[in-house]
Amino acid sequence: MKSMDYGFRDGSMCKGNGYKPVNLHKWGPGVRDVFALHYIVSGKGYLRTCHTTFSLTSGESFVIFPDTEVYYYPDPQDPWEYYWIEFNGLKASRLLSMIHIAPDHPVLEASPQDFRPLFQMVKTAGMEPFEQERSDAGLHLLLSYYMEHYPSDTAFLKKDYALSAREFIEINFWKPSLSVLDVVEFVNIERSYLFRLFKEENGISISGYLTAFRIQRACELLKNTQLSIQSLAYSVGYQDPLYFSKVFKKATSYTPSEYRKVIMEHPAAASTDISG
């Protein structure tokens, strides 16, 4: 089968979180393999990274970046108290990229917003799927407030237009009436600019991505359900099952019925990453 993986799914992951009362704890110098966001509640401390030492105080935040050497320590006369959270994953990285912060300027000045309740809402994920979802939701909410108070420059936001278009497609792909114009109107930027950004970020046009996502979803349904071809076609945004079958064969080299037969006879070959 053809293979096509446009990264339809990604996720964030909270790796750890906690609260440090007033103390003389220090860490480093060393590197971490995750992002670590700290919010200072009271007191003072210092962060040394990228050949610079930053002085920090209550209300400020700082981020440790993966594979970047850091050393942080409290002021001995007025030691800090802080909350922290560690995370990684594509979605979390994307959100962080929309905050005005980078390895060479990892400190965010104090904001009128008290971030303590938001840090307290984030819980390290347990083993159950619902615990993971809650953890990711709390992290997403926390970072969204940092995005609001410390937005990055416009240059850092260009990827978000393409991502918004992707997410809109992935939510609405089942609607037969969904068109490229609908996507453009939702993102609300100039059409040719969105087309260029989308192609740069995804390596495919908006209309091509819509078709690819529909076909990938159809493959999943063929593998996991016994829906008729007519019902399956309608489920992925095609009112005409004959036209759906034609599009499906062009993308996979199989008709839907042939694809389902291959899955039943050769489960190991039943990849849903189909692309050309």
Average residue pLDDT: 86
Fraction of residues in H or I helices: 40-55%
Report, as a whole number of angstroms, the end-to-end distance.
9 Å
CATH topology of the largest domain: Jelly Rolls
DSSP strand tally? 9
Oligomer: single chain
Low-confidence stretches: 1-11
Which series of helices and strands comes N to C?
Answer: EEEEEEEEHEHHHHHHHHH
Keywords: DNA-binding, Transcription, Transcription regulation
Organism: Paenibacillus auburnensis
InterPro entries: AraC-bd, Homeodomain-like_sf, HTH-like, HTH_AraC, HTH_AraC-typ_CS, Tscrpt_reg_AraC-type_HTH
Domain HTH araC/xylS-type: 163-262
What does this structure look like?
The strands form two sheets. Strands 1-8-3-6-9 form a five-stranded antiparallel sheet. A four-stranded antiparallel sheet has the order 2-7-4-5, with no helix packed on it. Helix 4 packs across helix 5 (180-187), helix 4 (154-172) crosses helix 6 (191-202) and helix 4 packs across helix 7 (206-224). With 276 residues, the chain is α+β, with helices and mostly antiparallel strands. It is elongated, with a radius of gyration of 23 Å. The chain has two domains: 12-152, Regulatory protein AraC (Jelly Rolls, Sandwich); 153-276, Homeodomain-like (Arc Repressor Mutant, subunit A). 44% of the residues lie in helices and 19% in strands. The model is unreliable at 1-11 (pLDDT under 50). Residues 163-262 form the HTH araC/xylS-type domain. This is Arabinose operon regulatory protein. Keywords: DNA-binding, Transcription, Transcription regulation.
